[in-house]
Amino acid sequence: MRIDMITIFPEMFAGPFGASMTKRAIDKGILDVHFTNFRDFSTDKHHHVDDTPFGGGAGMVLKPEPMYKAVRSVLAKTTEFASNRRVLIMDPAGVPFTQNKAKELANFAQLIFICGHYEGFDARIYKLADEAISIGDFVLTGGELPAMVITDAVSRMLPGVLGAAESAPTDSFYEGLLGFPQYTRPREFEGMEVPEVLVSGDHAKIREWRRKQALLATSDKRPDLLAKAELSQQDKKFLQENE
Q1: Active-site annotation holds for 72
Q2: Which strands make up the sheet holding 85-96, listed edge to edge?
Q3: Which of the following is catalytic: 171, 175, 208, 235?
Q4: Is residue 171 annotated as part of the catalytic site, yes or no?
Q5: According to the model, what pLDDT value does residue 25 have?
Q6: What is the pLDDT of residues 104-131, one digit of tens each?
Q7: Among the options 92, 210, 211, 222, which is catalytic?
Q8: pLDDT for the residue numbered 172
Q9: What is the pLDDT of residue 44?
Q10: Active-site residue (options: 24, 64, 119, 131)
Q11: Element (H, E) at 207
Q12: Which pairs from 155-158 meet CB under 8 Å and 24+ separation?
């Protein structure tokens, strides 16, 4: 998958993209990450990319010309992905980013992230994107951090990124539920013991226990998720019995 970041702060990505799973994906050639600084496409001598808003108000607004030129430059250089790419704009008013959205985006060959800054975008910039995405109901300085978060979540869905083939399907939210409790050695620690079922060797019972624990955790901490999760009749019966 090719990732293109349209940003005036490409240096922000060095740390997060230089470690852990994202670095592994890049090193393996699973992710091909590129950065385009839209300041390079500014036409005035001071390389401005923002200006005061029409109608007055505080802050500065990103100008459309540099952003249009930057995005169109990337589109022109990557025509081989034209039939299977998605242009995303990071925006608090966008659709909420979820695990299902990560799965959906993992099917594209190219993702282009438009990362804003300052007080916001000139409204005409939104026409460049296929969709706007938000990672939560809060305000950040720019779109770089959301773009990093989305890239991390999406890259986990790509074959060959994770060390174990089963890791992604057992992640929290993968099936719309929170994750089940995990344990490792030692078996007993300060009086706290690992549940007996996990050391029984009975894989069917372990799967059943994990499913029930995920259901209980979700019901207790995020009941809103249950309304959207795919639950079997057995799941529903178990939840009713444990209300």
Answers
A1: no
A2: 32-36, 2-6, 110-114, 85-96, 131-134
A3: 171
A4: yes
A5: 93
A6: 999 999 999 999 987 789 999 999 999 9
A7: 92
A8: 52
A9: 87
A10: 119
A11: helix 203-221
A12: 155/1, 155/21, 155/22, 155/25, 155/30, 155/31, 156/21, 156/102, 157/102, 157/103, 157/106, 158/1, 158/25, 158/30, 158/31, 158/106
The answer to whether 156 is a known catalytic residue is yes
How many helices (H) and strands (E) the chain has is answered by 8, 9
Closest to 176 (Cα-Cα) out of 116, 103, 122: 103
Give me the pLDDT at residue 166, please. Answer: 44
Contact 81, 2 (CB under 8 A): yes
Report d(CA 150, CA 99) in Å as an integer: 10
- pLDDT < 50: residue spans in the chain: 164-166
- The per-residue pLDDT for range 162-171, each reduced to its tens digit, is 864 445 555 5
Query: Is residue 126 a contact partner of residue 111, using CB atoms and an 8 Å limit?
Result: no
From the candidates 50, 86, 122, 156, which is the catalytic residue? 156
Residue 173 is predicted with a pLDDT of: 59
